[in-house]
Each structure stands twice: as structure tokens, then as C-alpha cells.
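Example record

The entry below shows one chain as it appears in the dataset: sequence first, then C-alpha cells.
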Amino acid sequence: MRTVFFDIDTQIDFLYPAGALYVPGAERLLPALAQLTRYAAEQSIPVVASMDAHAEEDVEFQEWPPHCVAGTQGQRKPADLLLERRVTIATTPGDYAIEGAQQIVVEKQTLDVFDNPNVARLLEQLEAERYVVYGVVTEYCVACAINGLLKTGKRVELVGDGIREIDPAAAERTLAEFAAAGGRLTTVAEVGAR
């Protein structure tokens, strides 16, 4: 079964206490996230990594504090979550060559990775039968990703010990809706055992 990992917004501004939009407890995810990244590399599983890449005056900053401004330290991913052969897909519509890439970084300026106009074509190119999703924040960007992936009709798994929320009640609703829509909750250990 062709598998693709979806790493959602695992960026310094979200993962570390000093980050501009820190998700409480997210730094505790780092060992699990690094393990998933290593496993993907060892098993030749492509990793689609969404990344906020905001301009200094982005519309999103009317609702959220400024974060992940393109080119800043906070916008970057921790080194343990980067793979050597990467391609970046900007929000500018285009044809991006992904052949040979271990990691496909998909830039976005909104909560939803599917707002990047190149994602539909990317999914066609990847031809996945199974998506494994992890990252932050469960009830926001992760929810957008799993909902978009469920619409593909393919198998979608969410790594329960590879996600973190801001609002536990909202995250619980997200997980319940995910399960009701046919999604499957998994763990880092289960993903690595296959």
C-alpha cells in the first residue's frame, strides 16, 4: 500500500516555548516527530510537510499573533524534522517536479494546506493509498488536513501521540468527527511496526 506522511506545521514558532505562537506541550512531541521522520526516510515514504510562510502583514495576523514569517528562525522546521532531498512548493500555481524528493514542503498562508493551489496536483503525482498525518494544531491545521485528505477517499490515519492541541474539548470533537468520517487513530509505534 503506497503510503505518504503528512507533517503539519511542525515549525519552531509552534513547537518551542519561545516560539511566537507556542502550542503548550508541543516540544514533548519532538522525539516522536523525529522518529516518524527517520522512519519515513528509512522506508522511502514521501513526507509532505506543510509550512506556514507568512508575509509580515498577512491577513491571518488579524486573528492570530504574528508567527512563521517567511525567512525568520521561527518559520523553520527543527533540523531533526528535515530530510536531505527536499522540494518546496510555493503558493504560486505551477508545475513542481517532485521526483526523487524525500520531503515536499508545501507553503501556506492560511490554516488549510489545501488552500495551496498546487496540493491537488501533488496528491495526483504521489498516488497514495494511505495518508499518515501528524503535527500541530489538532483542532486547526491538522483538522483541515485530515478533512481534505478524507475527501480523497483514501485511507487516512492520524498519529494520536504525534499531535497537540490548544483546546482539549475542540480537539476531542475533531477526533470524534474524524473517526465518524472513516479516519483511523494510530500511534507512532503502530506506524513503525508496519
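Notes for this example: The domain at 3-192 is CATH 3.40.50.850 (Rossmann fold). The mean pLDDT is 96.
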